[in-house]
């Protein structure tokens, strides 16, 4: 894959967002008039970073569908995560509450800026949003706030609540998590010994260490500091409830990918609360939990591919009709 990097403006003043644009090398690109070229827009979960998506992106580039092919894939680091966190370190040093609404607003800002740079098409008909956990909620919020930003969405393990939720004990635990190590070997030894991490695909763990850390005073440190990660969890109180209560506003085809062993997003619960949506579908990834994109990225990519086979043709037809209506 070819990877290009750019920096765009956050919706908040003086904050920057680092974006990676993935594409095939020129000699491997094929002009295909029979299939629709799509742009994937991928949004990571809290505590992670854009490179976590790379195993899935590689699989989706190679997938052979009769109706679509991946032209580009776009992934970015949220303002307090990954490479963006380094650029915004001083400005976010004391931020302990990061509303998810702002993340949704940033998504809209990124899409608009990339459209102006001709990196994304100005029509939403080929932009597919795929998000995990916090990232899934942010996509749902962005589409409910600004309809027709995306042609369709895949919300993976979305955090959906029907009431206000805050878990102060969990926030405190996240703030106290370890965030520095002597070197890369020390970090690998630590992560592979922890239950939370040892179920991950090896590629994802390697990417997490390689791209999720920076050198600070001779040590390796998480780019997303514990207080930044805790701020994101704290900021989901009202937005997660809002995202749930306003699911009915989302007109584009939307799929929910759920881990069969997920505690956060049980299938029956997600099935019930998404019934209000005009065009939704559910898919279950057996023997996977909340972190399914990290546990088995190959199977996750296969699930995404099958969902896109169903949704891309439908999304194009629906959006064409919506845009025509908007012009009347």
From TrEMBL:
Residue runs in coiled coils: none
Q: Give the GO terms filed under biological process for this record.
A: acylglycerol catabolic process
GO cellular component terms given for this protein: membrane
What terms describe the molecular function in GO for this protein?
monoacylglycerol lipase activity
Domain AB hydrolase-1 stretches:
40-301
Pfam families in UniProt = Abhydrolase_6
Its domain of life?
Eukaryota
- The protein depicted here goes by the name AB hydrolase-1 domain-containing protein
Please report the organism this UniProt entry assigns to the protein. Coemansia asiatica
Q: What is the lineage of its organism?
A: Eukaryota, Fungi, Fungi incertae sedis, Zoopagomycota, Kickxellomycotina
